[in-house]
Design brief:
Chain lengths: 350, 510
């Protein structure tokens, strides 16, 4: 019995901390993607004379700030088991609101920014409210929003591109001595915030729980609806922030902006190993997914690939990345099972 | 069909055995004679449905012989049994909801010409088949999903009657039928009898069994304990055979004082599954809820908890104003807890860590500044809970799906220990759990009551309720028909009460 008593202490310590294997598995997930990223960099570096240059890095980090932010929001939505197909159109709508506020209403930038964010949040709220309270699959609701938001954008701008100019360009301009733009730095901060949200906060915990088994969450006494609604609002907000960055990058609000961006964001998130079934996802890995897409596209530009072949290759890479991810996972699981056989038998504590 | 010899069995079963995790059928012998209606009776889990499924080719026996008209009968699949003339209407509905009634009736032999379905012929055949079971008014082209449960049951029966039928197995065929529909079914059974078929009739409804059965076989714990002519078996005798004599067991129960009423349920109703149920649970008391499968026990707990809100009636927890919970969140806030029936789909986040599963639902307890998770406190709570429930695992970071059934259940139970609800409800807490874990769960239930909570336990295993409960309420056809205090009850009384709502047809009419 004294043996059992001393064992209790050590087991309690062991149980209170993640086991070594579990901790390393998290790192392994990121390492795998970094290897893919490095392989792409090396590949394009050997194929093109100019790929390994400061300019390429600048291009990548400054061109993909908007996609990065969209991917953050999309990760959260996929984690709760939903999807947001409307982000590209919502982005265009928010960009239009921003452009009109600055140019036509001549309000100050902070007020224009607030209007833009409010537009994004409102779109997210509509998506969330309809899908959560009327139990409509978010695929359908956001597909409708994809159309409606685009239509609203055309009405709002009378289908004309609104030139905004220097009042917003500073956001996308590389900072002296750093090379990265303000947009990109904010996007990085949002990646960090999204990662912390999902892994370290109560809200993130319940997003994961709802995506895993909504009924179990409900029966444990937590209403899943407010969390789900908030997630769609966050996705709308991310679309609005992405709109600001895009308008800054091209100096104008384009009613055709953001077409197809939802698919780019989904691709990045899925390459990052987030499950379309919900319950599993990482914002950090989604960011690596964005980087993989960014390096691939920039690299293909550098080696002079034509637009059709770029698309062909990008599509193949998306699928291959997910296939590799799934197989690595099952391979990892069989290693885990083998390891479990070597460990001592599970026993109760007393 | 040649008229078979009336003295030789049509279908003979010898020494049939089947085990899943535990033995379900043990050396069952059964003879079915031509022109006989043979009823199978038994308590929940006695093996009736398993036996029926093996006869119909829905699962092979582990050992034993079956002969059909003196030839070896060993169906490997349902269609082989059907080809041999053995038809089954199962308890669960098996129609494809997106197809029409006609397509379902003739799915495996649609009339075709050059590979194209002849819808006219299909419609005509289907209409004839439907009128046979009294569904004359039903359009054969109605999608099956639009039918009520009773109509679906009749379509299933019509499907079997359309086939060459030497043995017809009906597993609880009347559960959803109205009295005229039952009469029509019995007329069909009588016609088949005339033609020399054998009918296996499984039912909880003793009045029906006595109305149509020629002989009755009783199963208990997988053994066929008696076969008697129907006329010779009365209700008490049947119940005694189903229960058997049970050895006394050590009671797993502390003596404890019961206090004030902590759960007051009044006239709670939901659809036709929960009807006007009222009862009280006292602090420190374990109330068992017994009843047949499908009698509305789970629905009652879910209605109390707000998981499927009740239509009428009230619930009051710990003397609070009577109310009706529309959501589990409200019930939990009022001091209720529920361990749901199916831990995999309703209880656990299977791929997530044990830690996360143990602390699920306690949102406020771990919310730190800025909404950050108090991870250290969460780990400590999870570890202490795991110890309290004696969880066998390698690490709290293991996914819950890697645990055995018993340990998974301990995780779901453990989740509520931290929250100390005033009333704790357990729905089939030991289903699919090994014996050792069962007793640990009994201990946890006892501790919960000893702490001063009111406890409600729903179980299909009467022995379990006898072991752990202070009082047992019996639900029959959605109504609470009787409540027994410890000392008053016997297994016979409980089972007789469980059948009470089914002995007249009042139970099935809304």
């Amino acid at each position: 019995m004294s043996d059992a008593a001393t064992r209790t202490e050590t087991d309690s310590e062991k149980w209170a901390e993640p086991s070594g294997l579990a901790r390393w598995r998290g790192v392994g997930d990121v390492v795998g993607m970094l290897v893919v990223l490095a392989a792409l960099v090396v590949l394009f570096g050997t194929r093109s004379n100019h790929f390994w240059s400061a300019q390429t890095v600048k291009t990548i980090v400054n061109q993909f700030a908007d996609l990065t932010v969209l991917a953050v929001g999309m990760t959260l939505v996929l984690v709760i088991g939903g999807i947001d197909l409307s982000v590209g159109s919502v982005m265009a709508l928010c960009g239009a609101v921003l452009g009109i506020a600055i140019v036509d209403w001549e309000v100050s930038f902070p007020i224009a920014l607030a209007a833009c964010l409010a537009a994004g949040a409102a779109c997210g709220l509509v998506n969330g409210f309809i899908s959560v309270h009327w139990s409509i699959p978010s695929f359908i609701v956001t597909l409708g929003m994809l159309e409606s938001a685009r239509g609203a954008t055309y009405l709002l701008t009378r289908s004309e591109t609104k030139y905004v100019g220097p009042r917003i360009e500073w956001l996308a301009r590389p900072l002296p001595g750093l090379g990265a733009s303000t947009s990109f730095l904010i996007a990085l901060a949002l990646v960090a915030a999204g990662h912390v949200l999902l892994t370290r906060t109560v809200l993130g915990r319940y997003m994961v729980a709802i995506g895993t088994n909504e009924e179990a969450v409900r029966l444990s006494g937590v209403d899943p609806k407010p969390t789900k609604l908030l997630t769609f609002v966050l996705s709308g907000l991310c679309a609005a922030i992405a709109a600001v960055f895009q308008v800054a990058r091209v100096s104008s609000a384009d009613p055709n902006g953001g077409v197809g961006m939802e698919l780019g964001a989904i691709a990045a998130v899925v390459i990052g190993g987030t499950s379309l079934m919900g319950g599993r996802g990482s914002v950090l890995r989604s960011f690596l997914g964005v980087l993989i897409i960014a390096v691939l596209q920039t690299g293909l530009d550098h080696v002079g690939a034509s637009e059709p072949s770029k698309r062909l290759i990008s599509g193949a890479v998306i699928v291959l990345a997910v296939v590799a991810d799934v197989h690595r996972r099952s391979w990892g699981a069989s290693v885990g099972r083998a390891a479990a056989r070597l460990r001592p038998k599970a026993r109760p504590l007393g | 069909m040649t008229q078979p010899d009336a003295n030789a069995p049509l279908l003979a079963v010898r020494g049939l055995c089947k085990s899943y995790a535990a033995p379900v059928l043990r050396a069952v012998d059964l003879d079915l004679f031509p022109g006989e209606v043979h009823a199978l009776m038994g308590a929940n889990g006695a093996g009736k449905s398993t036996l029926a499924r093996i006869l119909a080719g829905l699962g092979p026996p582990d050992s034993g012989e079956m002969t059909l008209q003196a030839a070896t009968y060993r169906p490997a699949a349902k269609h082989q049994a059907e080809a041999a003339g053995v038809q089954i209407v199962q308890q669960e509905l098996t129609l494809l909801p997106t197809l029409t009634v006609a397509e379902n009736l003739f799915l495996d032999r649609l009339p075709t010409r050059f590979g194209v379905v002849r819808f006219g012929a299909l419609r005509r055949d289907a209409a004839r088949a439907l009128s046979r079971v009294g569904l004359d008014g039903l359009d054969p082209e109605t999608p099956t999903s639009r039918l009520g449960v009773g109509e679906q049951q009749l379509v299933e029966i019509a499907r079997s009657l359309e086939r060459p039928c030497r043995v017809l197995i009906l597993d609880e065929p009347t559960a959803a039928l109205t009295a005229p529909q039952v009469d029509r079914l019995f007329a069909n059974i009588a016609r088949l009898k005339q033609q020399g078929a054998a009918i296996v009739y499984i039912s909880h409804r003793l009045d029906e069994v006595r109305r149509i059965a020629d002989r009755i076989s009783v199963l208990r714990d997988g053994k066929l304990v008696a076969t008697r002519p129907a006329a010779e078996l009365d209700l008490n005798e049947a119940v005694r055979l189903m229960v058997g004599s049970n050895p006394s067991r050590e009671e797993l129960r502390h003596a404890r004082a019961t206090g004030e009423v902590v759960l007051r349920v009044r006239s709670l109703s939901r659809g036709d599954r929960v009807r006007d149920v009222s009862f009280d649970v006292h602090a420190g008391e374990v109330l068992g809820i017994s009843g047949l499968v499908g009698s509305g026990r789970t629905e009652l707990l879910r209605a109390i908890f707000g998981a499927d809100p009740a239509d009428s009636g009230t619930v009051s927890v710990a003397g609070a104003t009577p109310t009706r919970f529309r959501q589990p969140r409200q019930a939990v806030a009022a001091g209720l807890g529920l361990v749901p029936e199916d831990r995999k789909t309703e209880g656990l986040l299977l791929p997530r860590s044990i830690r996360m599963n143990l602390t699920l639902g306690r949102r406020k307890a771990y919310r730190g500044p800025l909404g950050f998770l108090k991870a250290r406190r969460e780990r400590e709570d999870a570890a202490s809970t795991a110890r309290r429930v004696q969880l066998a695992c390698h690490s709290l970071e293991q996914p819950a799906e890697q645990l055995s059934g018993g340990n998974q259940q301990k995780v779901v139970v453990g989740r509520w220990l931290l929250r100390e609800p005033r009333v704790m409800m357990f729905d089939e807490p030991t289903r699919g759990v090994d014996v050792a874990a069962k007793f640990e769960i009994y201990r946890l239930i006892d501790e919960t009551a000893a702490r001063g909570a009111g406890v409600v336990v729903v179980s299909s295993e009467v022995e379990e309720l006898l072991l752990i409960c202070d009082r047992i309420a019996v639900i029959s056809a959605g109504r609470l028909v009787a409540t027994f205090a410890r000392g008053e009850w016997t297994e016979e009384k409980l089972l007789a009460a469980a059948f009470q709502g089914y002995t007249n047809r009042a139970g099935a009419e809304v």
